[in-house]
Structure formats: structure tokens, C-alpha cells
Amino acid sequence: MRKNLNVIAAYGIMLGLIILVGIFQSWNVALSIFNMCLISAVMTMGANVQWGYAGLINFGLMGYAALGGLAAVLISVDPVQEAWAVGGFDILMCFWLIIVMIFAIRFVLKHFEKSKIRTYGIAAIIIVGIVIIRITSETSIEAIENVNPATTGFLGGLGLPIMFSWIVGAFFAAGLAFIVGKVALGLRADYLAIATLLISEIVIAVIKHEDWLTRGVKNVIGLKRPVPYEVELQTKEWFINFVAKFNSGKLELISNITNKQAALNQLVIEGSSVFVKLCYSGLFLIVVIALLVVTQKALYSPWGRMMRAIRDNEEAANAMGKNVIKQHLLIFILGSAIVGIAGAMLVTQDGLFTPGSYRPMRYTFLIWVMVIVGGSGNNFGAILGGFAVWFLWIEAAPIALFLINLFTIGLPETNALKVHLIESVPYFRYLMMGMGLLLIMRYRPKGILPEKIEIK
Amino acid sequence: MDFLNAIILLLNYIFVPALTYGSQLALGAIFVTLIYGILRFANFATGDMMAFGTMMTILITWYFQSLGISLGILPTALIAIPFAIIFMIGYMLFIDKFVFRYYRVSKSPPVQLAMVSIGVMFVTQAVVRIIIGPSDRRFFDGEKFIIKAGEFKEMTGLNEGLAIKSSQVLTIFITLVLVSILFWFLNKTKTGKSMRAYSDNEDLALLSGIDPKRVVMITWIIAGILATIGGALYGLDKSFKPFTYFNNMLPIFAAAIVGGIGNPFGAFLGGYVIAFSEIFLTYAYKKFFMYVLPASMEPETLIQLLSTDYKFAVSFSILVIVLLYRPNGIFKGKVL
After folding, report:
1. Global pTM value
2. Do residues A117 and A251 share a domain?
């Protein structure tokens, strides 16, 4: 119990802060912060598996999160029959062509000695393949994008419940991670960072501009939800009764019937959105706890010990007969898959997919700040980092406003400096993140909750 | 005549813009490569440091404009740049003293320094946005064009015009002068040689009496000059927006790695490689072929290899291919 005291204290403080937001701002805000904290925690767990367990630096988190989001769209949106009719066949043909191309390359790789001619041959296969694909797809892509461009203009998805996308998103991300890992994992640490960062930018560019698949920057809105809609809840008998019962103390104080009804209506509207957010919190909590159990088990398993050995001394682990390359690839895929789940969860919560909003600042570097601040190598630390940093990210503006007012209290309201500072309040969050990261790295380099390995 | 038109077309839409963009990238790439070679980490704050330098240039330009100082046909920013460089160097040395030095002295692994540079990136981004705001700003004044498209057409009687902006000529000219001075400095002067020695083998350099503090300081000074001038030239040619500068970090990294990281000359050429391939691959060649081919063979489609949306993706793909086949870069950088 005692040795876990700091963990319990840290989580207690975090929960207390969120409850304070609930009391002083509103429960709606508190719950939306809490939900985003949970999603961030899943992302940090993914990054932590790669960085904390294996020492692999992955600055491409944004790409995997976006692929998870794409999975949510492709799973939940109903198929656009018209678009399939005009261009579906050609798109499927291109899909087969890509598979044929891959097999052709594999065949060449297997059956010919490494030589210049082989390299040129592979290049030729790729170029010819791309040309054929472009010729087959060009007209049908145009046709698909012309089907009702204002509302659809893309192929749509499978029309399944959106919860499936959490698994599919993981597979999408894992698939990308397999390719990236094959290509880039041999690189030295900072090269790997740059390469993954740039590859994630390529992924975003593709998602943004292949309108037939993703609608691109036109966004996909109104995704199906796994939880009830507020508007429906407000008309349900049982929910109104539930809210009335829950707030009976407050309602009894109002004697006038019409006033009472108005107050109840207000409470129902507020209650419905809190209820929906609570449903999401429940779903997300299940994911977080399940992942936590699995990652914790993995950390203390022989496999986890092997990963740490590889992280701390690659050569020695290699000499002990561990296949470093294979294990690196495996953990790179696992971590990316977790990030993919988080990406799908995020889109599920928002109900919309906006490729334009994926920026490395928010989806890569912020997550890294979370991992470093929380404590890499320690799952509880990573989750705490997700909570603390996201909380600060959201509450930075009010804190900054408070501080500015405090320090410029002597200045008149119209003072140019004061006005300018108050206008730029939103950017103080970057300052706080940066200072937080620098201070933690300098004075507590292992994070708030450092990694600790118990040998039983 | 048609053939001349085709050449002018390529000059106007590919060659001049790519040369300008390449020069801007080259300055940034030399900055990255110097920091990597001598201080031994990948500086993720590159784009934002350039934004800081540009911000100082803009603020000083505004001050000069309010005083009524101008250079006539040349942009006022040119006299503001030297002052901005002083501020930039001050900021860099300040950051080095309070942030990077600790990790350098304790010989932290490069990854940790790269992480620290992300912290610096956040802080610098905040400072720039708090001081000047996130919006798009243009600070070019003076004569905008050297040759206007219309004038060129009248002069030569061709169908295609060639427009050359003075900011483009300035960019190319200043880059060439600056890079020549830099290479002269690195190869011929004693200080430059000691910097290269330090980059090549730190322990041997220390043994032979090179003062590491001095080398580091001079590196930051050169980096400050490059970052400010590179950023200001980009801002003069296009416009200043903090977010764009952050994004520019990516092609700059690509240029530095393609050229072989740690090798300034490679970085210089890498900038042009990236710029030319981005523009070559995303330009629509329809008009060019209309001039060159006989009327019966005129193309119907745009003849564009890749849509312009994939401009960034091109440079990143080049980088990935280079990393795969020549991890040391095209021009042999440090062996990593």
C-alpha cells in the first residue's frame, strides 16, 4: 500500500481537480474534459508501449490516430449505393491491382539475386502499376465525387455499428505500422523520429485529398453514435422521471407548478447531455482499464523483461539470442494499434471526422509531452500524464487570464499591453506545455510517476 | 517561337519559383545540419526559431517605417535584418545557457536533446504568437517586380510572360552570398576549421586545445544569422504566418537529410533537390506540351504527375527513399 501511495495521491489530486471544475464551472465541462483525458490516456499508453517499453521513438502518432478516425467513418457510414454503382467496380479493380503489384514485387525479391537490374525492375513494376491504376481509377473517381457532392461524393462505409471501428481502427493503424516499421525501424533514434513524423504527414495528405474515400476536407459529419441522442432522451418518460427523482430535493423547494415544470425541463436538458457524456465515459473507461490490465501484465511478463533488456542494451539482448528486429517491429505495431483505437474513439465521441484538424502539434507532440511528463515506462504514469496535460491544455486559458489580471492589476482596462495580453490568452497554453516539459525534463527526467521495476 | 514560349513558361512557373523556394529551404537546412553536426541533436524548434527571427525583423521594420526610414525600391526589411539577427542570437544563446547546456555538459543521448528541443519549440511558438499573433502578415514594401509579365510580353513579343519578383532575386542573391561566406568561413578560417574538427571528433578536438564553449557559441551565432535571414526571406517572398513556419520545418528536415546531415554543402544542395522535385512533380504540363507538340497531338488532360495537394508528400517520399537506399544522404553526411 505504502509504495503505491504516490500513485494514489497523484490520481486523487487529478480527480479532485476535475470535480472542482464540475462544481465551479459545470458538470458538462468537467465530463468532456474527463472523456478527452481518457482518450488521451489511451494514446499515451500507445506511445508509452513504444517509447517506455522498447525505447522506440514514434513521432507519427498523428497518422495512426487519423487512420483510426478513418476506420470509424468507413465502418459506420451507410454505403452510398449510387457511388458504388458508378465507380465501385473500378475501385475494386485498383485494389486487386495493388495486391497483384505487391505479389509481383515479392516474387521478384524472392527469385532474383540482389542486383542493380532487380532494383530497376522493382521500380519499373511500381511505376507501371501506378500508371495503370491511375488510368483505371481516374474516370470512376470523378464519377464518385460527382454523386451528390454536397452530401456524399464518396463511397461511404459499411453501415455497421461504430463500436466495431475501435477494433478495425487498431488493425488499420497496425497495418500502417507494419509498413512503416519495415521501412524505418533500422534507422537511428532521431532519424526514426523525423521519418515517422514525415510519413504521418503523408498519411494525412492522402486522407485529406482522396475525396472518394474520405470526403477529404469536406469532412464527414453526423456519424452514428453508440449512445442515445440528447433530443431523444429528453422525450423519454423514464429519463424525465429519473431526473425528477434525482433532483427531487431541489424541485420541492419550488411551489409554483409552472415554475416547477420549467425548472424540470431545464434540468432534463442539462441532464441529458451529462447522461450522454457519462455513457461515453463508461465506454472509454472500459477500454482504458482493459488496456491497462493487458499492458501491465505484459510489462511484468517475460516478454516485458525481454523488451526492457532490448531497450537498455540492444547488443547484449541480441547476443542472448533475442531477435531485436522482430521484437521492435512487433512492439511498434502494438503501440500504433493502441493509438489507432484512440483515434477511432475520438471520432466516435465527436461524431465527425475532420481531416483538416489533424496537426502534429496536437496529435503528436502534445501526446509526447504527456508521456514524458507522466513518466515513460510506467503505465500509471502515462495515463496520469494524459490526464494532467490535457487538463492543463484546456484550463490553461482561464489560468493565464487570471494570472494576467493579477499581474496587470495596477494598469487601466484600456492599457495597450493588457489588452494585447488578454487577446493572446489562447497561446499561453503552448507556453505552459513547453515550460512544463522543460522543467520536468530538467528536474524530474523520469516523469511524475517514474518507472519502477519490481523483481518478485 | 513556340519552343521559346515553352521555355519561358517553364522558367516562369518552375525554374524561378523553385530556385527561390530552394534557397529558402537551403538556409534552413544548413541551420539544421550545423546544429546536428556540432551540437549533435535534431532541432525540432527549427521552424519556430525561424519564425522568431522573422518576427523580430517585422517588428523592427515597422519601427523603421514609423520613423520614415526606407530603402526606396528595396524593402525596408533589409536594414531591419541585422538588428533582428542580434535579437535572435541573444534569444538562442539564452536558450542554450538555460536549456541545452545542461544536457550537453551531462552528455545526454541525442534523443533526449531532441525531446528538449520540442519543449523549446512549444515555448518559442507561444512567444511568437503572444507577441505578434497567429495571423498572416505581409511586410514587403518597395518595388514589387523587376520584370512584369505584361512588360516582358511587350518587350519580346512572345505569348508567355516572365514575371520576376524582386523578392525572388533578393532571395537567390542573398542566399548565394551568405552561403559563399559561410563556406569560406568553415574551410579557410581557423575558427571554422576548429568547428569542423569539433564536429568530426569531439575528443580529439578537445585534446588539441579547441575551446568547446567558443565553438558552441559561434555555432549558435551562425545558426541565428541563417535562421533570421532564411525566415525573413521566406516572409518577404510569401508572407509571415507562424503556422506555416512550423510546417516548413518538415521540408527543411527533408532537405538536410537528403543532402546528408552534418554536411553543410549537402544541405545547401538538398534544399534545391527538394524544391525542384516538389515543383517538377506537381506542375501541370498541359500548356508546355501544347507549345512543343504539333496541334494534332495536343494533350487533353492536365498532364500532372501528382496533384498540387501532394506537394509536401513529394519531399517526404524522396526523404523516405533516400533513407532506405542511402542512409547517409546523397552527398555523404555523417555516418550514423
Report:
1. 0.91
2. no
